[in-house]
Amino acid sequence: MLFGAHVSIAGGLTNAPKNAADLGCEVFQMFTRSPQGGSVPPLTTAIATDFKNACKAYNQKECVVHAPYFINFASGNPRIYHGSITVVRQELERASLLGAKYLMAHLGSYKDLGHDVGLAQVAQGLAEMLKGYKGETQFLIEIAAGAGEIIGDTFEEISEIMFHPRLKKYDIGVCYDTEHAFASGYDCRTPEAVDTTLKKFDKIIGLSKLKMAHCNDSKVELGAKKDRHEHIGDGHIGLSGFKALLTDKRLKNINFYLETEHDKVVKDLEIVKKIRG
After folding, report:
1. Which one of 13, 91, 163, 270 is most buried, counting C-beta atoms within 10 A?
2. Is 82 annotated as ligand-binding?
3. SS3 127
4. Which residues are noted in the entry as Zn(2+) 1-binding (predicted)?
C-alpha cells in the first residue's frame, strides 16, 4: 500500500514527478490536459522518456491519470457522446505512452436518455473506445457520489456496465473513492462497516477488479449524495474510519491517492502513512 496525491502538471508533464516528491508522495495522480477542456499539451516519445526518467529520479513508484471532467457517455448530444469516446481513447493512449498504470473516468449522467437507453449507449461507447486498444494502461470506472442521475454511484450500476455483454471481454477495473462511496451510502467508519462494504463489493463486482482508491474524507454525512472532499480526519469518515480501511488486509496491495486541497495535503499524507505504520 503506497500513498500519493493528485499533482499539478503546470509548466509541463515532466514537472509532475518532482511536484509529487515535494509533497511526500510515493505514487501520484495527474491530468495530462486541462480537465475542463481546451488545448491538449503535446506528448512526444521524447517527453514520455523524460517523464519516466523523472519518475525514477524522484522515486515515484506508480503514476495514474484522471480523465477530464467533461465526459458523458450517456449524453443525448451526439457531439458530446462522440467527443467522450475520442477524448478517453486519446487519454488512454497518452497515459500508456507515459507508462501510467491506470486511467480512471467518471462516465457522465443518465439525465438525457434515462437509465435503459443510457446504459445501452454507455456500453456501446465504451466498447468503441476500447476496440483495438493495445496499450498498457488499464481503464477504470470511478465510483460516483450519487448526485442526480450520475452514472456509477452503486456497485450494482458499475457491475451492470463492466459485465455488459458488449464489455465483459475488456478488462475494465474500478477506482474506489472513499468520499464518493461514503456519500453514496457505503459506510467505512468502523472495521465492521468496512467488512460489510468490502464483502458487498466482492459479491457484486469482485475484489480482484478493485485496482486503486482515492483517499478523501467527507464534508457530508453518509448517503448525502454529494461530492465534497475533506481533509483526512476532519470529515464524517474520521480518523477511525481511515484506520479501519487502511489496515484491512484485503486492501494491502491497493494504492491510495489523496484528492484533498493542497493547503493540507502534506499533513494528510503524513496521517495516512502513520496509520499504515
Report:
1. 91
2. no
3. helix
4. 66, 106, 142
On whether the CB atoms of residues 43 and 32 are closer than 8 A, the answer is yes
Does 164 appear as a known binding residue? no
Give the span between the Cα atoms of 33 and 48, in whole angstroms.
Answer: 14
How far are the Cα atoms of 85, 209, 219 from residue 126, in angstroms, in the given order? 7, 17, 32
Q: Number of helices and strands (H, E) in the chain?
A: 9, 10
6 annotated ligand-binding residue: no
Mean pLDDT of 128-144: 98
Q: Is 128 annotated as a binding residue?
A: no
Q: Quick one: residue 18, left, alpha or beta (phi over 0 = left, psi -120 to 50 = alpha)?
A: alpha
Domains, the chain, ordered by start: 3-276 (3.20.20.150)
Q: Record the cell numbers describing residue 199, joined without a space.
A: 464483502
C-alpha cell at 51: 517523464
**227 labelled as ligand-binding?**
yes
